[in-house]
Amino acid sequence: MGGWYPWNSHLKGKRLIIMHIGNEDGFVEAAGDVFESNFKGDYHDYLNTERFEKWFENNLPKLGDNSVVVVDDAPHHSRRQEITPTTSWKKVDIQDWLRSKEIHFDEDEVTIELLKKVKETKSKFQTYAVDELAKRYNVEVLRLPPHHCELNAIELVWAEVKWHVARNNASFKLKDVKKLLLEGLQNVTAEKWRDCVQYVAKEGDEFYDRIDEIIDTTIDSLVLNVDDSDSACSDFESEDSYSSVDDNR
């Protein structure tokens, strides 16, 4: 979900930003939002949370019950429903927050002690805003590990669309780029989407198999090191005991 057409120097800093969503049946009908930006930084900085969440909520009813939406860790996907206290907060504000959550504390506790209570309980209150929106429509949000966009099918779809634009872009005028962009979206068939989803599903299985293998190897290594350490310790104690006996003779 989400995407963008990269800025090109010929467009004098302008770029097109895309938000869309799709599945094995193709792009969700009338879900796309393409808009223009003059912002020269990372598109994540321009695509603000408010705009994304509004678009997301408008399209949730189109997805159907028990749908799963795959997202990465982009800032506009990751706004917390509630802000929790940090070291920059005043003591009285931390106390007010704890009271609002019915978390017991003593009035004479210092700030560091209050923050410890916050740390122990804040996970209960740090839900993501888009996750809560999705729950209203019986939709689940699946968050990918950081830096693993290859596990999201839409990244493959965007690559196809961008290739269409790059291959046919002759004028570098924004209106022509937008036309090519819309053509590229139209050219992505349901069959293409299915291929991308199936490919990513396979990649996901292999990814988590590798994770399991790494975990198993690490655990085996730890067990081996502990066993070696115990053995060395036993040998040392045995030799020390023998020496003591020898000294007593």
Automatic annotation (TrEMBL):
One of its GO terms (molecular function) is nucleic acid binding. InterPro entries: RNaseH_sf, Tc1-like_DDE_dom. Residues 43-173 form the Tc1-like transposase DDE domain. This is Tc1-like transposase DDE domain-containing protein. It comes from Eumeta variegata. It holds the Pfam family DDE_3.
